[in-house]
């Protein structure tokens, strides 16, 4: 049941143009729970229960070379494509899960019902209003951290009054649906197009943050910077090795929902 709820929530963020439009990556800086497991799955090359700096750098170099076609720099289009293929597969899976009628199209009511789950996730107090600015507490989740809340409000705070109401959220979600469905119901292709458009926007912002030289292209060092920063943050004893214990200690210290720091977009 919990996995089903997670799937539906992911679909809610996907169809509403949310921050979860692409699968989470190690460089997203979440060090607890499933992200911690994914970190080891991605970087523990010899499966010895620890990740060395050399292992991490080898994986990042391989990803960079594959994405850039072996060239010394990575374009914005190549950077975006890193996530696009995986997101397409995830989009198809989510569409099938929320298309209860099985007719290959989402009605307006089906779409809005799924989208509203995202609002409910943000509306922690159940007031029907999501504030755009609030102090983070240990109980805050997901999008109320950092850029997630900013992104949510940028999309849905139509009158720029510092909050998003249910009416604003519904109106914007409906507008998104109508633009993508074109009057005939939202197909899997339309659903993916919505997610792909938002992913491109997300990756453009991430690319701009990583492109510290403002060259319009990423070097391997720029590409690797978020994960390098994460590694240094977790490797408290500076021995060039991250163990399960160090990861667990970070998880425990920063609370159940993990910790984010630095650039929040990952390479690949």
What level of helicity do the residues show? 55-70%
Radius of gyration: 19 Å
Largest sheet: 2 strands, antiparallel
Shape from CA axes? globular
Oligomerization state: single chain
Distance between the termini: 30 Å
What order do the helices and strands follow?
A: HHEHHEHEHEHEHHEH
Give the spatial strand order of the biggest sheet.
Answer: 1-6
- Class by helix and strand content? mainly alpha
Strand content: 5-15%
Number of separate strands: 6
- The number of helical runs is 10
Calculate the mean pLDDT score and round it.
Answer: 78
Concise synopsis of the structure shown:
The chain is mostly helical and 268 residues long. Helix content is 57%, strand content 6%.
If you had to describe this structure to a student in words, what would you say it looks like?
The protein has helices spanning 2-15, 33-43, 53-68, 76-98, 108-122, 147-156, 166-181, 188-210, 220-234, 244-254; strands spanning 50-52, 105-106, 129-131, 163-165, 186-187, 241-243. The chain is mainly alpha-helical and 268 residues long. The chain has one domain (2-254). The strands form three sheets. It has a two-stranded antiparallel ribbon.
Features:
disordered C terminus; two-stranded antiparallel ribbon; two-stranded antiparallel sheet; mainly alpha
Give the secondary structure arrangement, pairings included.
Layout: H1 2-15, H2 33-43, E1 50-52, H3 53-68, H4 76-98, E2 105-106, H5 108-122, E3 129-131, H6 147-156, E4 163-165, H7 166-181, E5 186-187, H8 188-210, H9 220-234, E6 241-243, H10 244-254
Antiparallel strand pairs: 1-6, 2-5, 3-4
Helix pairs in contact: 1-4, 1-5, 3-9, 4-8, 5-7
């Amino acid at each position: 049941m919990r996995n089903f709820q997670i799937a539906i929530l992911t679909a809610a963020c996907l169809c509403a143009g949310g921050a979860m439009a692409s699968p989470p990556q190690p460089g997203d800086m979440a060090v607890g729970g499933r992200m911690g497991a994914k970190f080891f799955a991605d970087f523990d090359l010899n499966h010895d229960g620890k990740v060395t700096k050399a292992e991490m750098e080898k994986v990042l170099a391989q990803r960079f070379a594959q994405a850039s076609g072996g060239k010394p720099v990575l374009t914005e289009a190549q950077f975006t494509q890193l996530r696009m293929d995986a997101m397409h597969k995830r989009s198809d899976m989510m569409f099938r899960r929320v298309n209860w009628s099985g007719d290959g199209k989402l009605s307006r009511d089906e779409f809005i019902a799924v989208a509203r789950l995202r609002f409910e996730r943000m509306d922690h107090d159940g007031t029907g209003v999501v504030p755009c600015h609030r102090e983070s507490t240990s109980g805050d989740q997901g999008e109320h951290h950092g850029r997630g809340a900013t992104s949510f409000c940028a999309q849905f705070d139509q009158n720029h009054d510092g909050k998003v109401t249910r009416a604003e959220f519904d109106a914007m979600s409906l507008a998104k649906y109508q633009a993508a469905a074109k009057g005939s119901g939202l197909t899997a292709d339309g659903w993916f197009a919505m997610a792909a458009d938002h992913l491109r926007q997300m990756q453009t912002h991430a690319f701009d943050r990583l492109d510290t030289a403002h060259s319009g292209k990423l070097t391997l060092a720029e590409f690797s910077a978020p994960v390098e920063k994460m590694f240094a943050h977790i490797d408290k004893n500076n021995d060039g090795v991250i163990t399960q214990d160090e990861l667990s200690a970070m998880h425990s210290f920063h609370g159940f929902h993990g910790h984010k720091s630095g650039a929040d977009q990952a390479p690949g």
